[in-house]
Structures
1.
Amino acid sequence: MKTFITVVIVNLFMLIAISSVCRCEGIAVVVDRDREGERMTSVCIVTPEGEEGPCFMKDIFPSEYVWEGISYHQSGKFLIAEKQSPKELWMFTIDGGQKMIAASENGFGAVAFAGSEPVVFYYILDADYKLHLYSMRIPDDLDAEPEISECPGNFPEGLMVDTKNRRILYFTLSEQTSAQILVSCDLECKNQTAEIALPKDVTVNTNSAVLSPDGNLVMYHGFYGGNLPVGLFLTDIAAKESRDVIINHRAALGEGQPDRYSFSPDMTNIAFTFFGKDGNYEFYMVSSDGKTLHKAQSDEIETFRSTTPKWHPSGKWATVAAVLKNRDESDVYSFSTEGELKNLTSGQGGHKWGQAISPSGRYLAYISGDNQALMLFDCENMKGVGAFQVPGYYAYPVWIAYDQ
């Protein structure tokens, strides 16, 4: 009986210990603050209640040394930041650890993580300004040397990480024809697993390419004959086939080109901004099969902003920011797959930017540019819930799930 009671008590304490660990949602923000007369950079988490949570880096570097190119690992345990002078990549952990992991005389390109795995990809410009892509596996022990591999390809661009299939995809030039091709490699860049030809006579813009949530489709825009018109293409990786999803909507779209775009979570719809011939940006929703097209329209909007649309996890609507007519203001809107446009921030005044939706779908975070406040919108009750003031400058907010 005594043994039984002891086991019950031990299990109860274990249950309490486990339940006390919260997988919390917070907003990671970059803040510059004055410390002893010098602007220092911090990256901290703000909770939906407006409280400051743990910090990856706090008053670490003079602000002019760190770029905004900060990437967060899915685990919420560490991030990679680029130091501008000298040009270095640094890793910061949520428990205060830090380490310089790479250096380059001419700087770095985009940085991306491989989902939950401790693998990071980054570009380096060599002395001849030729672009190289590297894969780095981050060791558990920060003092240990990381495993680094160079990814194959001539001028690799447009990196996309497919965590579900444990591979990366990017554009490069064919060694045989010098034409643009799409290639895939394993996460360690040791084995090239596929080489896919792109549509003939189409010049692809690789900088805006995105991968579908299931990792099976790549979306990008390209110029027919290197000029207008411009198509929005989906390439099926397995079938090695490509199609233009806006080819049947030329008359509705008019002259111009797709700018930023993203898949809905269920991949049935695509939201995209479109740069028109009048110099303004429009906003559209097209079905993935190319059959239906909805245009976001409002008499109060001058132009939409050139930002990547952010989808609500339900897949029913996406967000976009727009500049208002005859006013030095902008608002955040939702646009549904049925074509309904809704102003989410009406009446607040000033400019809003950097919208980001929490993984749970509960909150929309954005920055109010006039007073540099971090704003929250409740997506369940469709109303604003708070403005959080933290001294300094915010970069785009990023939602992070972390343990506490």
2.
Amino acid sequence: MCVLAVTASCGPGPTQPDAYCGIGSASTTGLVATAGTTALAFANLSASPNNDCPDPATPGVVSMTIESPDGADPLLTLCIPHPERLPGGLALGSAAQLVDLDGTAAGCSFAIDASVAPAGTVSATGLCDAGSAHAGFALVAAGTVSLTRTCGATVDRVSATLAGTIAIAGP
């Protein structure tokens, strides 16, 4: 008697059945940076294993870039040196590098203030193949970021809450 067992998996980081991989119920518009009554709503983010921010201590790990489409307003770019650790949660600003966050709203422009480190966490559900699975995944963010706000001749610094769950398209 012969028994054949087949197990489907998504590859590195966690090994799960194919049904586990993907965005789940996340929306393509679920992530918002809010400063007071002004909101910058991000949409249609995608991930790609570009190796833009590799960790020199682990040369075999390919970093992942999560970004808005070209020309988007607002614009968001994150670089994750260790995407295989994203399901467990990463510190925003260090383990999950906030490269760019800018946009316009309410007659003002907003840009990341690099002099103040972001705080909070980002994590993922449905992440397979260290973020390179075509099914994508859901990104969950909860943190704060300092933005430079320019309204005409007035320039000041505002604290924004970055929060929500958003579908991330795979490569």
